[in-house]
């Protein structure tokens, strides 16, 4: 479980996050949704510590990330896996080297053990025969899969995904969403997914936080989302034609 | 400008708060050294050979007095090549070739979030990515300068003797005449300093890229111009510092 308390962050005097709080639960994907430029990525980066918030705290299973000593910080970091928007694969390394990288740098595992783990993770994301490929040879969906494999290779307790299906076709998007959901359940991880894709929201949105201009305006499940009575969120979710026709039927 | 220089020194500070074991760096430095050496040796050899040749022809052209012996030509070529052309002009080439590729490589890693990916894993991305580049440059650049010196003198020899400006014996005599060994030391000190400046400034520019592909290009250009300016300033100060008596 990850708990965020009163996070605020400004860049050059411009407030981007305003007093955001929330709880992210274990064993399922927790969604952060909102329009582009509202601060979703900044929120995620604050949670993983890539950006230091001006105020507020982040608790990983009751361990304070920013207040904790260096060892706590390093320990938490090693329990984090993250999937970046474009995959962020190291483009001078092969698929296999990319996935093995966290094991190489963070663990003292033996070579065979690492290889077994890498193969297991690649198989888990459905990429058995791509070990020796370079990132430049992969499609967008495959890059995301390799990114997921790299994120989970070191058995993380926490998984973060920034727009896992941006730039993917609808079918591949659904596959990636389901993969993230299954992995979160299988390995009992606390997973946070940033998205603005309504398909994902309706597909895997067991727990949703809606961010609008740096503020959390609403929190709930996909079943509650259509009758929230929050005008800004209605504007966001019913911008989608399918969703608005759904509302008309209701 | 001032804050940029401040950020540069903070950046340098992060280089040495390293957390990775030495073995990791050893391998990375080796890889970078091979890339830097192989990537620039041909260009360096070509440019310095021609510079030596041109210096010989021009020096001869400017020495019209029959009272000046011919070996002075190769003596001038030697001083020019070893002191200035090899370390300094090749540093400009080095900035254009290696510096720009360091900046664009790191810039691409930044905008595609590869640097963030390293940081999330708890790796000090500055020391992991940049330290090997700087160390490899400081190892390889002096070697390149030595190659440039040899090629420059060789270029002068070939052109000088083929065009009949100077006889082989006179050329070799001039190269050896009144030679002060400190010149070589000075050239090597310069090359280590220049290598540090070019690689650290270019890495700094690339590492702090913000935006997209366009900004990577801008960083790469700025890396070259800023490195060249720094090299020329350092050239002047080193000459003041080490050559003034
Ligand atoms: N490092 C930064 N420096 C300054 N401004 C930033 C930085 N990172 C993000 N921002 C700004 O914060 C705002 C929110 O960005 P972001 O969180 O990426 O939006 P999104 O919700 O689309 O992920 C944007 O206006 C962006 O320009
Ligand atoms: Mg974003």
Give a verbal description of the structure.
Chain A: Residues 2-238 form the ABC transporter domain. Chain A: It comes from Chryseosolibacter indicus. Chain A: This is ATP-binding cassette domain-containing protein. In chain A, 39% of the residues lie in helices and 25% in strands. Chain A is built from nine helices and ten strands. Chain A has helices at residues 40-48, 70-78, 95-106, 111-124, 140-152, 170-186, 198-204, 231-237, 241-249; strands at 2-11, 14-24, 28-33, 55-60, 63-64, 80-83, 158-162, 190-195, 207-212, 215-220. Chain B has one domain. Chain B has helices at 2-15, 22-62, 71-111, 114-120, 125-162, 168-176, 182-207, 213-243. The radius of gyration of chain B is 21 Å and the shape is elongated. The model of chain B has no long low-confidence stretch (mean pLDDT 92). Chains A and B meet through helix 2 and helix 3 of A and helix 4 of B. The complex binds adenosine-5'-diphosphate (ADP) and magnesium ion. Magnesium ion binds at residues 40-41, 162-163 of chain A.
